[in-house]
Amino acid sequence: MTDQSAAVPRSVRRGPPITLTCDCGERRYLRYGERWKCEKCGKTWNTKRIPVEQYAAIRATQMRYRRIPLAISVFGGTTQLVVTWMIWPPPCFFIAGTAT
Ligand SMILES: [Zn+2]
């Protein structure tokens, strides 16, 4: 690792990979600060050219989009559990219900 990569915040370096599509159509996933030389056309790509602030913004957007399906799945799972309990109550609930 060079001195330059050390200047990149850890959160950014550990962030999601950047999808890079070369002019020739070759695609590669790179971490921030990584360099890639296209095997097809020989063009070099340097993700460090992307300003850190811009990458942080991209990362924030990606995280936000990742949170939506997670929220939906959590909500869906909870709803399903509640509905299941209403139809088939767990044994402890059932006992408590019949005892009274
Ligand atoms: Zn290329």
Write structural notes for this entry.
The protein is 54% helix and 14% strand. It has 100 residues and is of the alpha+beta class. The protein has one domain. The longest helix is centred in the C-terminal third of the chain and has 36 residues. Zinc ion (ZN) binds next to loops.
At a glance:
Helices cover 54% and strands 14% of the residues. The chain is α+β, with helices and mostly antiparallel strands.
Question: How do the helices and strands line up, and which of them pair or pack?
Answer:
Elements lengths: L2 H5 L2 H4 L4 E4 L5 E4 L4 E3 L6 E3 L5 H36 L3 H9 L1
Antiparallel strand pairs: 1-2, 3-4
Bound molecules: zinc ion.
The site of zinc ion has 8 residues, from loops.
Strand element count: 4
Strand content: 5-15%
- Average pLDDT, rounded to a whole number, is 80
Low-pLDDT runs of 5+ residues are: none
Order of helices and strands: HHEEEEHH
Overall, the morphology is elongated
Radius of gyration over all CA atoms, rounded: 24 Å
Query: How many distinct folded domains?
Result: 1
Strand order of the largest sheet: 1-2
Spatial gap, N to C terminus? 69 Å
- What structural class do helix, strand and pairing data support? alpha+beta
Please report the number of helical segments: 4
Q: What is the percent of helical residues?
A: 40-55%
Bound molecules: zinc ion
Largest sheet: 2 strands, antiparallel
